[in-house]
Amino acid sequence: MAVVAVGVALASALLEAWWLSIALLIAGLGIAPALAAIFTSVSSSLRFSETAEAYGWVGTGQLIGAAAGSALAGFMIDGVGPRGAFWVGGALAVLGVIVSVISVRWLPDLRGKDAGPRPDTEPIELVG
To answer: Domain Major facilitator superfamily (MFS) profile spans what residues (predicted)?
Structure first.
């Protein structure tokens, strides 16, 4: 998310087409790792039967964020011009970094573990 914030901050300063495309390319480089981390956390911390609902909530959050960000950016464009949209994007990306840093303690530690979904059932040892 920090890469996204840096790219969007650069985009707000550089509104010429070539520089803008380079800044947004930098911002886009941070999206794939962020989404991979989100989906890996969901799949590895829930049972397989619960993942569909969890992915639904993740998608809902993304859509709400896109809608709210677009609305705020529209107000800023009306108020201060095109740079305002990038200010909103940069501020929301920084907010995403802050939320990520705070919430990392509640995510499962996946180092050295299978990132696949937890099984719905487990083998039972029979003594006999």
So the answer is: 1-128
